Amino acid sequence: MVRNLGQRGQLLNDPAENGEVQVQLGPLRMTTNIDQLEKLQVEKPKEPKQTIQIVNLARTETSLELDLRGQTVDDALMRVDKYLDDASVAGLPQVHLIHGKGTGALRTAVRDYLKSHPSVKSYRFGGPAEGGTGVTVVELKK
């Protein structure tokens, strides 16, 4: 059990000198400190059938919107890239990027960036109740 994630996994190697180990959590392989692990007693199933349950904690930590107002284009695009990756991993179907209206430079840069992002299915301006042209609503691929 990886305590800080609350997920069960499988230890892949012995601890390194600094206490780091690799753990397999379903399709995800990660490095963590041995102090974050707890050994669990696993009952062997009577049938040779195995099931793995993965709890997606990222969904609770990823907001449905990202406010970019006041950011430079370069800083905003770096934040958008990380945010879209986090939102995809969390399984969010749709997110809102708040870039404001202003001169339109940030809005244009964000929308140009979304054209080629691999996680983006489609995007549109927000409706009147969503912030209009100051917000881009992004639909993510599943």
Q: Biggest sheet, open or closed, and with what strands and sense?
A: 4 strands, mixed
What is the CA–CA distance across the termini?
28 Å
Radius of gyration: 20 Å
Quickly give the structural class: alpha+beta
Helix % is 10-25%
Overall pLDDT confidence:
86
Number of separate helices: 3
Strand residue content: 15-25%
Order of helices and strands: EEEHEHEHEE
Indicate the low-confidence ranges by residue numbers.
Answer: none
Number of strands: 7
**What global shape is seen?**
elongated
Q: Give the spatial strand order of the biggest sheet.
A: 4-5-7-6
Label this structure with key terms.
single chain; 142 residues; alpha+beta; four-stranded mixed beta sheet; 3 helices; 7 strands; 23% helix
